[in-house]
Design a protein that fits this description.
The protein contains one helix and six strands, in the order ββββββα.
């Protein structure tokens, strides 16, 4: 998979996985050229969400490596990635205005309405 708009940043990656044989354990991890996540394992014939950890998007593709400990089929039907840290690695970590997460928070902040006595 390619990151949306070839974004740079750190994403928390989740995948839904199951195996066709309950006695066979699945193992999987997420990888880019910048980060290889820890290998997670489990078993089950129903889909379950697995947290694959923080993965750095660096204009490379996201790979999900999955395999089984015994005969059967491992299935990954969905991958979700949530932005944790927005960073412009290509610029050496410099602030890039609106792309910087801290700057975007300033743009998106809203005053919470309150009642004050006069």
């Amino acid at each position: 998979a390619t990151w949306p708009n070839s974004d740079y940043g750190t994403y928390r990656v989740f995948a839904r996985v199951k195996t066709s044989v309950g006695t066979s354990k699945w193992k999987l991890y997420a990888k880019t050229s910048g980060t290889t996540g820890a290998t997670k394992e489990g078993a089950g014939t129903s889909y379950e969400w697995v947290d694959l950890g923080d993965i750095v998007a660096n204009a490379s593709t996201l790979e999900i490596h999955a395999w089984l400990s015994a005969a059967g089929t491992v299935s990954v039907d969905r991958i979700e990635a949530f932005l944790v840290v927005d960073q412009v690695i290509g610029l050496g970590g410099m602030c890039a205005g609106g792309r910087d997460l801290a700057q975007s928070v300033l743009y998106d902040s809203r005053v919470t309405g309150t009642v004050v006595s006069r």
